[in-house]
Every structure is written in structure tokens, then in C-alpha cells.
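User: I'll paste a sequence; please echo it back and then give the predicted structure.

Assistant: Echoing your sequence first, then the prediction.
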Amino acid sequence: MTRQTGGQAVVETLVALGVEQVFGIVSVHNLPIADAILRDGRITWHPVRHEQAAVHAADGCARATGRLGVAITSTGPGAANAMGGLFEAGYASSRVLMITGQVESAFIGRGVGFLHEADRQADMLRSVCRSVQTVRSRAELSDVVAFVAADILRGRPQPGAVEIPIDLQQAEHDDGPVNIRTITAVTPPASAIEAAAALLRDAARVLIVAGGGVITAGASKELTALAELLDAPVITSIEGRGSISEDHRLALGPNSDLTVMDPLFATADVVLAVGTRFQQATPVQRALTLPGRLVHLDADSTVFGKVHKPSLTLTGDARLGLTALIDSIGGAAHSSDAGYLALAANSRAKADADARSNMGADFEQVMESIRAHLPDDGIVVKDATISSYIWANRCLPVLQPRTSMRATSMAIGPALPLGIGAAAGTGRSTVVVHGDGGIMLTIGELATAVQLGVPLVVCVFNDGGYGILRYMQNAAFGGRLIGVDLVTPDFAVLASSVGMDSVNVSSAAAFDAAFSTAIESRRPWLLDVDITGFEQMQIRPQQPAVR
């Protein structure tokens, strides 16, 4: 038994969970935890400038490492500020734990007006978290944190939160060993595996659809092995990028919502969907029909049938499920129908050609510069901006798992703190693709990047406003524009003011030179890219569907 404060108990529990760094803002209602982190020395506290950014950074760290990401906030306004980050983490199925303070336990719910009082804080957090717990006694503190962490890590990950009253953070107790719950990944039932293996073994035209669940489960190696065994092309969601290296002969890119891929779905004997909800933020996917048999493998059984009705479901971990399928299929590698493979190759070539045409020559050169100078294990984080929609989410090649992430909720602003968390968590070179409108929502985190000294290159593609909404208003509202043209700072000067290396560029050639220097430096950099002189990116209707 060890006598320690509640703050120390939090530290011991996080260390037992494998946490090495946390993101947060110190406050009167979390100082005992912060002080315990400082005195213990095994966890690094990364100070951010906004609580929403703390959760985004913890999210970025979790996605890039596969481990639990932790944010620490104050009660009341601090916890409320973090809600947007928790919303995004839920969309992304990310392993994020938020620990927040609370007023003294004897006064919770009494509404007497204490500093930062939030009587219904737990209810607020439950709207965006799967598990929320309030610590009610000092003796249960460690167990409560461990319980919520276990819920976050099970099945399809979802964020969770723990609120700890300030008196319990300060109180001492004789704690025993930390009780960390073992999370056991589930293998799909053997009978279902055998039935799926029989379908796949006998099919001549198998199409694999890989989603973010493949990345979450660490199953990229197994997915690639199964694709090679079946000689089956693989199409991914945007979150599933890196499930198979996009330079692999069977990779079709993140194009499952493009109508150019319709014939592949229409003529497949079997579609094997792994770790995907068939959601690409557009209605195109929901209009797709699957005439062949659909086999759906996912850790979350509630996703089955939401968009496409499966013939066979496999509930379980993607890595274990794919391994079991490989073992059950057995034998030498299969050969797919030659015509089907040719159709797959031609469909990808058409998708790639259309995307390059839409991005224009200048952005094509920018994209090629990023891929040429960024190491294969470098991370690219994309905000919700036209550059991401047109080329970064689609065409910038992803060669390894956990090297591509975006704002899955399509929010503007998360990319900068997501990138900071990814770079801090891995130490690997990280690139942020941002728009000038979105970055203003988290602009204060430039100072965080400098303070942490992370290898982060922030590319702000600057067109003086919200470009996608400008396009929409021009297209649908007769060119009447409201709220889309913005006064923006000189981002290079702004970055320089907090000690970040920065430069203004206005051509693809200048971008190449500046980006190369920034990546090689392994320091925080910002490139303010004036794209008003670039060949304009095009948003064009898709070709007619065959759905």
C-alpha cells in the first residue's frame, strides 16, 4: 500500500496505461494532477493554448501511435471548450481520454455558484463520449480512471471522460497496485470464418473495401496478405488509407465513393468489407448497389446493414479476423479474373487522371513536392479545405499505416493541433495541409508547436477566405457572397512573431524549395502559400453513375 494524493493516483494509473505524454491547460481545478505529473517525471505535460486543441492533440497522438491519448482540462468552461475535440475524436473512432476537474465533491449539484461550477458537466460530456464517470470517493479514483480507459480501448474505440472533484485530487489514501483491465480482442466465430473463407475461395472477382478499423486494429499487414492471397483489388475509405500501400499493384486508392468505381462493385462476386461503415460524408456511397455477396467484418456489430445489407457478418477484431480468414482459405495464391483486374487498374487510372486534372498543374507539383521530400513514415494531417478535398485526401500517396489523418467530422480548424499531437507522439516529420480560414480557429497553437519544438510543417493554402463556401454560393446562390471573404493576417509574419520559421511563397517552384528546407530542419515551420495565382482547382460533377 502506498499513501498518495489523488493527483498522484492519476499519474500512477496513466503510467500503468502506458501514457507518456498529456496535453492540457493548467487550472485551479487540475493543479494537484499537474503538480503530481511534474514531481513524478514519467509523463510529459504539453501546454496548449485552448482546451479544444488539447483534445485534438491527444487525438492526433492516439491516431499516429495507436495508444491512448490523454487531455487534461479544467471544469466548467474548460471542459465545455473541449467538446469540439471530443466530437471529432468520436467521429474518428479515436482512443482519447479526457480528465477534467470538478468543484468539491460535497457541493456538486448544489448550484451555489462556485468558480467554474458546472453541475451538469457529466451530462454534457456524455453527448460526445461513450463512457463518462464522476469520481465519488478517493478510494475509487484509480479504478474509475482505469474503467473509462478500458471502455475507450474496447471494440470500436470511442472517447471517454472522467471528472475528478478538486478535494479528491488533493486527498491522500493508501492505494494498492493499479488495476488495469485487460482488453481482449475478439476473433469472429469459427463457423462464420469458415463460411466467409468458402465464399472468398470460390469467387473469381473479389473486391476488398478497407476502412479505418483496419488501421485501428493494426491490421494493414494482414489485409495486404489477404489481398495478395486472393489477388483481390483493395479500395479504401479516406480513414482507411494506409491499409495497403497506395503504390501496391492491387491498391485502388480511397475512391469507394467515386462513380468511376461503380462497375467494380457491380461485377464483383464477393465484396469483403473490413472495418468500415461505408460512410464517406457524401450520399454517393449510400446509393451504391452490391449485386454480389457482401461479407462484412467489423468490431462494432451495430454498423452491419446500416448502408448495405450483408450476406454474412463477422463480428470481431480486424487483425484477428483477417488472420483467421487467411488460415482458413489456405493454399497457394489465387488468380482473379483477368478482365476484372484490368477493369480495376483502368478504374484507378481514370480516378487518378480525373483528380490530377481537377487539381491543376501547380497543385500537382505541390503534391509531388510533399511526397518527394517527406519520408515514407512522415505524417500528413489535413483540415477541411479545398486542397484536402481535391488532392490531399485523394491523391497524395499514403505508403504506411498511421501516416494519414484528417478532420473526419469535416470541421475546420482541427488539423494544426492534430498535427502537433501526431508529431509529439511519434517524433516523426508531420505536415499540416490547412486553409487560411480554418487555421484561424486554432491559430494560437502555433505557439504550442514552437514551445514543444516538434518537427511540424504547416502549409497554409491562402485564398483569402472560405473557398469551398465561396464556390457553393457562386454555384447555388447566383454569386451572392456572404461571410466568405476574410481579412487574413500575413501568416508568415504571425508565425515569426512566436519564433516559428516561416516564409511566403506564391509559386509551386518556390513551395518546393521552401518545403524541402522545412522538412530537413526538423523544426516547426509555416509556409504561407498564396494560391491566387495558381491554376485554379476545379470542382466538377462526377461521371454518370451505374448504381
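The chain has 21 helices and 19 strands. The CA atoms of residues 299 and 316 lie 4 Å apart.
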